[in-house]
Amino acid sequence: MLGLGLISIAGKELHWLLCVFAGIIMCKIVYQSTGAISPLLFTGYVKLDDQKKLEWNNRGFSTFHALIVAAASLYLLLESDLFRDGAQDELMINRTSAFSDTILGISTGYFLADMAMIFYYFPALGGVEYVLHHGLSMFAIVQSLLSGQAQIYIFMVLFTESTTPFVNLRWYLDVADQKNSKLYVCNGVALFFGWLVARIFLFLFFFCHMFSHFDQIKKVYPLGFYSLLIVPPILALLNIVWFWKIAKGLIKTLRKARHSQ
Questions:
Q1: Which key words are in the record (predicted)?
Q2: What is the DSSP letter of 94?
Q3: Considering only CA atoms, which of 24, 228, 168 is closest in space to residue 108?
Q4: CA separation, residue 183 to residues 69, 84, 170 (Å)
Q5: Which DSSP string do the residues of 158-184 spell out, in sequence order?
Q6: CA separation for the pair 164, 59 (Å, rounded)
Q7: Is 156 in a helix, a strand, or coil?
Q8: Which pLDDT belongs to residue 6?
Q9: What are phi and psi of 253, to 5 degrees?
Q10: Distance between CA 258 and CA 253 in Å, rounded?
Q11: pLDDT, tens only, 35-54
């Protein structure tokens, strides 16, 4: 029995490593594909300087990762029974599945790849706030993956990545000199409301959910328990700061659009 248990643990660890590696390879493939496809879709791509091309391609795999984890999080939180109250005998805080582990492994690979690029080209791809965001996110994901605890809260946070495609599209339109287009204005409005729902209201629900299930949260191992109390508030604060910047940018864009009519 002990031997079977060790084989099972080794199998899980191998699965995690393969998923992390798959996440890194995914980033590499999408990065290269973005660089190959972009000149065909946007003729101005070839005129961009090397730094702009670097960020353009980087935002390609950032968008791809966001779509994958947002869709997976939505499925695990709303469609599946994995985290539904009363659906299983296992405490909600301890529930995992092969699929949830796979998504967390892939996401870890993404954050490793993106963090490596951020450090290598610092500060071209983002400043200290990006390092803090990625570092905290990766710290929380790896803890949850290795311990098998609190995955429900990790997927709530990962769903906030659903706003990333709007952030990246705004940057793409800015670089493409389309700040006066209707698409830019519509994307700005979508980003504002998307951020409000996915990164402000969702975090309020996150904290209410933690409070109502605190009897289970107290059963999380010490480092994980204190991480749940510390990391989400920091991420929430970052989201509020960014939301304030988004709101100011939207107001400026709407005023400019009104005057141009």
A1: Membrane, Transmembrane, Transmembrane helix
A2: G
A3: 24
A4: 25, 38, 9
A5: HHGGGGHHHHHHHHHHHHTT-TTSHHH
A6: 9
A7: helix
A8: 40
A9: -65, -45
A10: 9
A11: 999 999 998 999 999 999 99
Q: What would the two tokens of residue 89 be?
A: 């005998």
CA dihedral of 129, 231, 59, 111, whole degrees rounded to 10: 110
What's the alpha-carbon Rg for the chain, to the nearest Å? 20
Structure tokens at 67: 């779509």
Distance CA 157, CA 100 (A): 14
As given in the structure block, the two tokens for residue 58 are: 């980087």
The sign one gets for the Cα dihedral 64, 65, 66, 72 is positive
Q: Tell me the CA end-to-end span of the chain in Å, nearest whole number.
A: 75
Question: What residue type is assigned to position 148 of the chain?
Answer: G
Helix (H) or strand (E) holding 113: helix 98-120
Helix (H, G, I), strand (E, B) or coil at 81: coil
d(CA 95, CA 15): 17
**Within 13 Å and on the Cβ side, how many CA atoms surround 221?**
9
Cα separation, 176 vs 190, in Å, equals 19
Handedness of CA 222, 85, 87, 139 (dihedral sign): negative
Neighbours of 26 (CB within 10 A): 18
Please write the tens of the pLDDT for every residue from 140-192. 999 999 999 999 999 999 999 999 999 999 999 999 999 889 999 999 999 99
Residue 203 is encoded by which pair of tokens? 């975090």
Report the amino acid identity of residue 12.
K
- 126 secondary structure, DSSP code: -
